[in-house]
Each structure stands twice: as C-alpha cells, then as structure tokens.
Batch of 2 targets.
Target 1
Amino acid sequence: MQHKGKRYRYSRMTRKRRRAQVRRRILAAVAVVGVCALGLGFGVQQLTGIGQSGPVDIQADTTSVQWEGAPPINVELLTPNEWSRPQIALQQIDGIVVHYTANPGSTAQQNHDYFEGLKDSQSTKASSHFIIGLDGEVIQCIPSSEWAYASNNRNSDTLSIECCHPDESGQFTNATYQSLVQLTGWLCHRFGLSSEDVIRHYDVTGKDCPKYFVEHEDAWVQFRQDVQDYADSL
C-alpha cells in the first residue's frame, strides 16, 4: 500500500509538472507570436508610414510604395550627407512648398542623381523631399520626417516638391500636374493641412519659382482649388 501511494503521488506530481510545462510552452508561444506581430507592425509602419500621427518616415533605400490616394512613389533615399540629406528631424509639418527644377527637359531621375552627387561635389546644399517627372513619376529623396534643403527658412516645418518641366515657360505637362495635385492633396490629407498651407517657393523668398505659377496667378489659384478638391475626396 505504501508503494502504491508513492506511485500515486509520483503520478500526480508528474501530471502537475506536465501541465506546468504545457502552460509555460503556451505562454512562450504567445509571447513569441506577440513579439513577431509587434515587429511586423513596426516594420510595416517604418516602410509605409502607417500610423495615426507623425510624419511618414520611409526607411527603405530603394522600393516602390503605394498609399491609397497617393500616386505611386519610387523611394530612392539620398545617402545621408551634409550637403543634401543632413538628417535633421522635422518637429512638425505646417506646409508644403512647390518648386520647379529650372532645368528644362531634365528628368526626375536626373534631378535625384544631382542631389545625390552633392555629397561628392559639395558645390551647394540642395534637395527636395519629392521630385515629379515629366511623365508624372514620383521619386522620394528625403524621408518626410527630415529636413530637405529646399525652402530656405521654411526647411524646418515644410515638405518640398520639385517638379520637372519640358521648356523655359516652366509650365508642367499634364502628367506632372496630375501627379502634383494628387501628391499634394494626399499630403494635405495625411498631415491635416489645407490648400491654404500649400505655398510656392516664391512665397518664401520672392524667387521666380515655380515660374509658371508665379507668372500666372490664375493657374496657381486653380491648382490650389484642385488640391483642396482632391484632399476632400480622400
């Protein structure tokens, strides 16, 4: 009887140990799944900028991303350097500044590569968050959580969009214009801005930039209305 009692106690203790082991394994599995989910969510947030607040901060070096309401964006971030990507954090986003390249016929990729080359030439400090090409293609050069060297004393609180143009008039192609409306409207929607917060480089410094919108005020007024209409549709 004493032997059977020991065996019974041993069997009962063994079952308790097994149950404890199962519980520990379940808890460990839940913890692993939670960590993986958190890591996946963080990775998606870093790549796509998904979140309820704060600037879009794309970390990928070269990829193509698509947000609902935004035009397709090729992410080709500049190499961090003093001359075109200083990695100074934007503390807030109060506006969007529209520019033109002042280099007729040049492509978005060529302008991106010019900004990238400044780390070597060190000839000037210049860059832009986004560049829109002649066919409406969009390249992102700077994460929208960082400064771009584009808008003088408004670098610290604005995003910049540089636009290519086919000739000296500075007028954008229809494809460039449509992408500019879409990108600007989406950024307004994303960061809680209105078309009143969309300005020209001219409005910061008096520079003739973007040339067509400076020389044709009616076109600028229409552009801002188109931006507001698009933002309201999102």
Target 2
Amino acid sequence: MLNQQTIEKLYTMRMRGMADAFTQQQEDPQTTQLSFEERFALLVDRQWNWRQGRALERRLKEGRLQGPACIEDIDFRATRGLDKQVVRALIHDSDWIRRHQHIFLVGPTGIGKTFLARAFGQKACRDGFTAYFATAAQLFRELHSCSGNSNWLGPTAATPRS
C-alpha cells in the first residue's frame, strides 16, 4: 500500500517518468539486485528523459514543424546547389542560433526549401531552442495583421498564459 501512495504522490508532483519507472522496477525482479543508489539513478534518469522528451514535443508543436523532416535525411546527391560543408557548419550545435543569425531559403519551386526549413527547425528544437516555421506568404500575412494593432513583435511574441 505504501508503494501505491508513493506512486500517487509522484503523479501529483508531475513526476510521471519517475512514477512509471518505479512501477516498472516493482514488476522486474532483476532490479532487486541493484543497490539503492543504482535504482535511484535509474529513476532520476527516467524522469529526466521524460521531461526532455516532453519539452521537445512542445517545442516541435509550437514551432509548427509539420512533417517528418530532419537534418539526417537531407539528400546531398540531388542537384539543388547545397553545399554540404555549409549545412554541416550550420547544424553543428545550432551555432547560428547562438550567434543570433537567421536562415532564409530561396530558390525555384520544388527543390526542397520547405523540407530544409523544417529540418533546420527540428534540429534547433532538438538542441533546446524554440523554432517557428512559416512560409513567406504566412509570415507576411502575420506581420501585416500585427501592424494594425501596434504589436510589431509579430507571431513570435510570447502570449500571456492563465
């Protein structure tokens, strides 16, 4: 009964990852062979991974990065004029974000600008940054709607939460 109360308290404290790991440890007879410190480290690791995963999911959703685009899936063999060294330099720890730089992708229709933009955004989210994906038409429309109410911060402005 004490274990069930502990699990309920973990859920109440929003420590779902740790609660799930604790339940799993109770069901696995091999975990009894581990020391307290090892079991506790497993619980903390599970909670950490759960929170990091939730944060990534939130950043991807708020960034409007629809579709399965990731940096690892970029095909450099296609004739798009992509410089592999430039792309690698950009994706290395998303250093371009730390330097407060932006990426604008321009080119003819059908060469993969949308895919590349989503891939860069997804990589930024994986590195702990927030991203915002918009086509040029969407961005101009949103900026125009912001100009009417003196809110020049545009679509990336933080909205108050209740």
